[in-house]
């Protein structure tokens, strides 16, 4: 049975096509800088937004039309697997991501939840073997259930900590069963409401303790996916410990986790932290910790995580440039952690929204590749810093030949003669625009 009988597998038809169920820019096999678009982009569909989001908001009830509801929660869960793989195949997307609670009902007890997970992951495995579609990452949802109100790894209650550990252990077992390439930790409630009653250091020590158990268990079962921490500054906790890439790197380094953990960076989380997405990618890249990305975009007029499908070509181009400079994103990928707007409530919007995101990333990739080939940014940067290697004093500082006293002598002798150069930044931005169309 088909959930989208009216839609064939989406094909590349070029930008003149009038067919909405076609790619206008994403051409999977097209070679860009020596690799196919498919190899560069490693797209993934997120189970939660695609299969379980109902379109409700704090002011309105569920609105999304979905045809996979069955007579029981388990029947619905199985129908969702079928529909999900149909979406992946029709889009030609080769990876997917999920939280444990997205795929299987929680049941009445931990035993029932784990048994449901076993049954559904058996079905997912069959579909993966049939289609060749792979698991980019899975994760444990340790933020929705009331027990996690005060955190999971950072909880004030060791019994909640044990429950979280059981969920993570199962997550790793599932990752092994489905050969997950990465495993994600987004600390949805690892933060605090008020410092008045919070022992910040104690809580972060305990999160790190859990991560060390994860590394030991992965070694024990002989399955080591790339572990990723996903920073986010606020929502749901007022303050989240993994605020942004730099803060999360400080945590990773403080606890000696850099050999096993990298970052999963999300565009809307970056902007909530007051950064551009490319800033977050650059920080991670410079630490050698750019693991994977959650592709979406926020709304600059709103202060929360709107998780919109990415359609802004400039932002995506700058993000893709960082990925190209990183030498690619594998074993990570580009996961659409994005949901259709409440006004896009039809089933087919799930396909249209992903096509929009994939086309935008294809354009971003093409533009970024051209910028790289032309040496656009390299030229600007080498010009901007040219004086360092182009003058005796610059070279001398860089080769550590100088100290405060010698530089003071230099400043007294030359300081008033400094000649600054304009950056002509408006001209640069206008030239950058030429790459986007
Ligand atoms: C929440 C978010 C999560 C993580 C996985 O803002 O991005 O969906 O990606 O838990
Ligand atoms: Co995310």
UniProtKB/TrEMBL annotation:
GO terms for molecular function: magnesium ion binding; xylose isomerase activity. It is found in: Cytoplasm. The active site is at 99, 102. Keywords: Carbohydrate metabolism, Cytoplasm, Isomerase, Magnesium, Metal-binding, Xylose metabolism. It comes from the Bacteria. Signal peptide: none annotated. Mg(2+) 2 binds at residues 266, 269, 305, 307. Its EC number is 5.3.1.5. Coiled coil: none annotated. Homotetramer. Belongs to the xylose isomerase family. This is Xylose isomerase. It comes from Listeria aquatica FSL S10-1188. The gene is xylA.
């Amino acid at each position: 049975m088909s959930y989208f009988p009216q839609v064939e597998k989406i094909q590349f038809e070029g930008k003149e096509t009038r067919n909405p169920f076609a790619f206008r820019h994403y051409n999977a096999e097209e070679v860009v800088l020596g690799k196919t678009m498919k190899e560069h982009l490693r797209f993934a569909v997120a189970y939660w937004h695609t299969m379980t989001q109902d379109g409700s908001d704090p002011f309105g009830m569920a609105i999304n039309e979905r045809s996979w509801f069955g007579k029981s929660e388990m029947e619905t869960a199985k129908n969702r697997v079928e529909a999900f793989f149909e979406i992946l195949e029709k889009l030609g997307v080769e990876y997917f991501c999920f939280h444990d609670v997205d795929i299987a009902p929680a049941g009445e007890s931990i035993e029932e939840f784990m048994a449901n997970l076993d049954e559904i992951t058996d079905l997912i495995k069959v579909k993966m073997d049939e289609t060749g579609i792979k698991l980019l990452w899975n994760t444990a949802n340790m933020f929705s259930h009331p027990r996690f109100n005060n955190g999971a790894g950072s909880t004030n209650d060791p019994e909640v900590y044990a429950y979280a550990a059981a969920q993570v252990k199962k997550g790793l077992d599932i990752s092994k069963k489905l050969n997950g390439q990465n495993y994600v930790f987004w600390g949805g409630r690892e933060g605090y409401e008020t410092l008045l009653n919070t022992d910040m250091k104690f809580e972060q020590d305990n999160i790190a303790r859990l991560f060390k158990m994860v590394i030991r268990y992965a070694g024990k079962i002989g399955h080591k996916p790339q572990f990723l921490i996903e920073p986010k500054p606020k929502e749901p906790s007022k303050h989240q410990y993994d605020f942004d890439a730099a803060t999360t790197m400080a945590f990773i380094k403080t606890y000696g986790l850099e050999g096993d953990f990298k970052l999963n960076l999300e565009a809307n989380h970056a902007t909530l932290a007051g950064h551009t997405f490319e800033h977050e990618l650059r920080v991670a890249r410079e630490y050698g910790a750019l693991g994977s990305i959650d592709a979406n975009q926020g709304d600059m007029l709103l202060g929360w995580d709107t998780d919109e499908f990415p359609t802004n070509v400039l932002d995506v181009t700058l993000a893709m440039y960082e990925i190209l400079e990183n030498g690619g994103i594998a074993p990570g990928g580009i996961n659409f952690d994005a949901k259709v707007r409440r006004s896009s409530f039809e089933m087919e919007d799930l396909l249209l929204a992903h096509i929009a995101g994939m086309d935008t990333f294809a354009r971003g990739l093409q533009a970024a590749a051209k910028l790289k080939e032309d040496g656009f940014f390299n030229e600007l940067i080498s010009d901007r810093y040219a004086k360092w290697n182009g003058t005796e004093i610059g070279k001398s500082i860089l080769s550590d030949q100088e100290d405060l006293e010698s530089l003071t002598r230099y400043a007294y002798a030359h300081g008033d003669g400094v000649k600054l150069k304009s950056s002509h930044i408006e001209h640069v931005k206008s030239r950058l625009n030429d790459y986007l169309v």
